[in-house]
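Dear colleague,

Thank you for sharing your sequence with our group. We've completed the structure prediction you requested, and as agreed, I am returning the results in plain text so they can be pasted directly into your records. Please verify that the sequence below matches your submission; if there's any discrepancy, let me know and we will rerun it promptly.
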Amino acid sequence: MKKKKQSFMQGVMILMFSQFLIKIAGLLYKIYLTNKEGFGDTGNAIYSSAFQVYTIFLAISSIGVPNAISQLISSKVAIGDNKGAYRVFKIAITIFGLIGFIGTSILFLYAKTIANKYLGIPEAEMSIMALAPSIFMVAVSSVLRGYFNGREKISVTANSQSIEQIIKTILTIVAVEIFAIISQKNTIIMVAAASIATTLSTFISFLYLYVFYLANKKEIWKDVVTSTFNKKESLIKVIQNILYLFFPMAITALLSAANRSIDAFTIINTISKYMGTEEAKLKYGILTGKVEGLVVLPYSFNIAFATTLIPAISAAQAKGEMDKAVKRISFSVLATILISLPCTAVLIAFAGPILKLLFPNAYLGEIMLKICSLSIVFVAITQTIGGVLQGIKKVKEPVYAIGVGVIVKLILNLILLRIEELNIHGAIIATIISHIITFLISMYYLKKHIQIEFKVIKFIVKPIIATMMMIVSAWCVYSKLAICSSGNIKLIASLIIGSMVYIISIIALKILSKEEIYMLPYGNKFYKVRNRNAVK
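Please find the predicted structure tokens below.
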């Protein structure tokens, strides 16, 4: 029996839940590594530098793949061309399998040169080599995820990502513990062990996707042979269509990775000149190992909107239902604001207590976390807008927006990091400014290509009021419990109360319309209950 396709919001909620599990699992192993004797902030600096190089290769070979493939697949499936969709899938597997193999080979063979010449961290060589095989596996996995996303089976992607991160967390802890004993807590060996765990987890995720594909091969083939429409295209034309979407998306992903990797190539090399290499590594480790890990949490949940919007908008466009797509876009931007704004406020207001709760043995970085948090809203909204633009095949616009941001980031890093009084904070300031510029350019393109209105009261004023009520209530609880409770209990209690106040504020301020509430899972029931209580 053919499985029912998932609705837009079902896809969003599935991915959000998946991202929640992924980030919690990821945070657990980061907490473990940071507090682990022999690893700590120095180990984080080595691991993060290797991972940033790995991320660049992923961007080239696979990061833009799921979105590009899902867009092509969804537009064909929407008009009944399942045969054409499957052909796109087969050709894409060949193309990106080859690209992934080349990426793996380069990263493995030139690990020493990259670590010594470009990163300035020779200790990262083993980690880079350990991560190299993942490039091929992720490239192929990305095509499989894109195919299932395009067929509106978002849960497959969510499950594979969740499995990968959970396995990665478990294997990282086990591998680091074993190699810590074997190497007598040698930091370089422990970091390499963590990298090996990453590669093994990507292999297991790939196996899950492949087994799922084999298990559903009959259903997929049935759709192919009963295809109601088939637009015959030459091999060259299909490849052109794939690469036309992939290259801009890949460049967008590459530029996003480059924006982060600029820090890996500039921070230690610059600030070590006036504070020493070890101190520079320590600060870089705090930024990448703890601070950035917390800051990415909010917009990692938000990626669910960007991922789900691409096939949804492509399908709507193919069917001539853009009015429906515009409503989803408006709701997605509002939801993005409602998710990211309170997260920003919490990390600024409670930066110190949060670091002490999560990293009791290494809680430095409060000022870094407060400053970094200012970028969350801009990055999250830019993510959502990027998904919209890619969904309507305006794939070059995100490249322009992020490209300008990267140039600004690089220039400001080179200027601000040289100021000793700012030191590593100069890189953080550069990041915030670059994200704001990228956001403004992305918003310009969105308004240019889609007739959509964002009311200031609804999208800015009311969410800010709700966030302020949340923070004030949370801080009052935190202050009142100052004498009778431990710091961790105070923090958890205040955040729970603050979250409840925030939800009540959203309802009281009527930020969500009836139609938007109905878009939520069980939204119709919630709306009826809300109205019944309002009448009472």
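Summary note from our side: DSSP finds 22 helices and no strands in the chain.

Kind regards,
the structure core
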